Amino acid sequence: MARDGNSEEIIGLLTTLASEIIQETIDPEEPLVAQGLDSVAATALLDSIRSHGYEADYSSLLKEASIHSLSSSLRSEAREGPTPPPAEFSKMPFPLTGPQLIWAELEQQGWGAWANISVCISMPARLIPAAFLPAIAQSLCDVNDAMRMVLVPSRSTDGVQRQRVLTEFQMPVRMREAPALERDAMRLIEAFEGEGAPPSEPSSRALVLASAGNSGRHWLCITMRHMFVDRVGMHNLAAQLRAMIIENELRITQNPPVGYVDYAFWQTSILDKNDQAERESKLRNMLAGADISPNRPVPRLANEEKLDLGALPPFSALSSAHTEWIESIATQLATTVPLLLHSLFSALVPRLTGDEEAEFGKCDTLLCHVVANRESHATLQNLVGCLDTSVPVAVRLSEV
Question: Which of 247, 267, 254, 232 lies closest to 101, judged by CA?
Fold first, then answer.
């Protein structure tokens, strides 16, 4: 639906919103990305636009959209979003959504242990008894249907890979005493995260490292297949988990407004069966010539003693000066801050691991940019599920 309201007022509103978010004077004629808009700022701008009663397309913000072009494409009503399907449908197998197809293909090629994603929370032992953590993990599993998803073992006659949700599933929880050193705890967690599971069996599982005394820390790690949840979904799961721990609640009192099953049925209603089968076939053909051998090298530091940083803080943050410097470089290069950081990381990894062929430009190194795909409807923002799209880019460092 076309926007309502005076054109000059709309342009003025968008200019003000963009200036507040980017913290720069905005030229209405220039692309917003060239003026410092990145994926995080685009999400914030979209939220601000919605707060004023309008809708816009997230993807257009990160392309060549300027204030003027954006003002002509605003809609005064949101598109219809996912709603719960009839109860009988939610128990039936249904097709994988677009982002899931890549992970399904990788798993069938033997990448099971490489295709996991985890959320890990550390908390003071005095905050909550360790015996409560398994019940909390199970409650999260009960209300987030993505944690109870499995692949249907064989493809149907139409060639479409399907999945289903288990109505009753007791999530496995492994309990161990927490090591005294944080580094040892992280090694146990990393080993736990790397364990695989057959595609047709549930992948969600939890590890609890329980401190022997109140002066220590408990650890809770929940791991599952990336096929069923992405990084934003795991952030949402972590938010639910933290809220339960802070409130000392063993169960979630309010279910999410929509589940991943609702989203999946919404997606399949957008694409007809022929279109979906065609897209899956095209993806398989693209992966047919790719190097997706399960025997991937395990990254190791070239000089572990020299590069050992010792005990690291739980988190760190860049100073304001460094942040502004990185943002200015991204603006000069007409790119986003996340894509710039991914590029720098891609250059750093070969040097840390001693991969001289990649470091000196004799072969490509892989850069991966991730798009959240949650901006089409507000109900998707807090959804636990797999919606993101990873865009791999092969980079020859000698040409950068």
Answer: 267
